[in-house]
């Protein structure tokens, strides 16, 4: 289970060994999106959904999950604003299994930004959790003197010829 908040939408993905059957509906006062996944039993991965919600997520306030009936798991997402959910299934690809994907977009068209522009803005911010404060960015001064050992590193390469690259250089 993965949750990706972005400024233009939030994506929730549930991964499974088999295709998931689901039903989705919305509730109000407070605004919520409910997803029932059929023929599934509650497990530790699904139980951990609440811990994955970030406080800076623009759409999801909180999430909870429970075994609604013996064959149905119910996920409830409490919302910060009215959203337009889009649910769809994705087939296995690369290292991923079957996936149920829910994208939450703002319900008001004026609130929705250009998705590509929003992704670029998020990318340009970088990983805010790992950014270093400006006072610590850049190299720190080294220690002068002879009390540090001198380290010399050699990279001998692999010693093999690369015919394709050699031809490219000759033809350039």
UniProtKB/TrEMBL annotation:
One of its GO terms (molecular function) is N-acetylmuramoyl-L-alanine amidase activity. Keywords: Hydrolase. Residues 2-104 form the AMIN domain. It is an enzyme of class 3 (hydrolase). Its EC number is 3.5.1.28. Transmembrane segments: none annotated. Residues 133-142 have a biased composition (Low complexity). This is N-acetylmuramoyl-L-alanine amidase. It comes from Salmonella enterica I.
């Amino acid at each position: 289970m993965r949750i990706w908040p972005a400024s233009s939408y939030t994506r929730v993905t549930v991964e499974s060994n088999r295709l998931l059957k689901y039903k989705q509906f919305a509730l109000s006062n407070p605004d919520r999106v409910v997803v029932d996944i059929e023929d599934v039993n509650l497990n530790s991965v699904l139980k951990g959904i609440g811990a994955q919600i970030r406080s800076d997520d623009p759409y999801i306030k909180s999430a909870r999950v429970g075994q609604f009936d013996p064959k149905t798991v119910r996920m409830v997402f409490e919302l910060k604003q009215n959203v337009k959910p889009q649910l769809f299934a994705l087939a296995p690809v690369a290292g991923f299994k079957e996936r149920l994907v829910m994208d939450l977009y703002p319900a008001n068209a004026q609130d929705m930004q250009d998705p590509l522009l929003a992704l670029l803005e998020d990318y340009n911010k970088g990983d805010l959790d790992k950014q270093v404060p400006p006072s610590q960015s850049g190299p720190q001064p080294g220690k002068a003197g002879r009390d540090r050992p001198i380290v010399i590193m050699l990279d001998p390469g692999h010693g093999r010829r690369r015919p394709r690259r050699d031809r490219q250089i000759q033809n350039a």
